Amino acid sequence: MKMQEIIDEIKLELTGYTTELEIDDTVLKSIVNKSLRELERYWDESKFVTVPFRTCIDLKGFDHASIVKVYRATGYGSADESDGKMVDPVYAQQWMVFSNLGTMYNLQDYILNYASWCTMSQIRNTMSTDLSFREDKHDCKLYINANSAPTNITIEYIPKLTDPDEIKDEFWIDILIRLATAYTKIALGRIRTKYVLNNMPYTIDGDKILEEGNSELKELRETLRTNSNLIFPID
Question: What is the pTM of this model?
Answer without folding.
Answer: 0.68
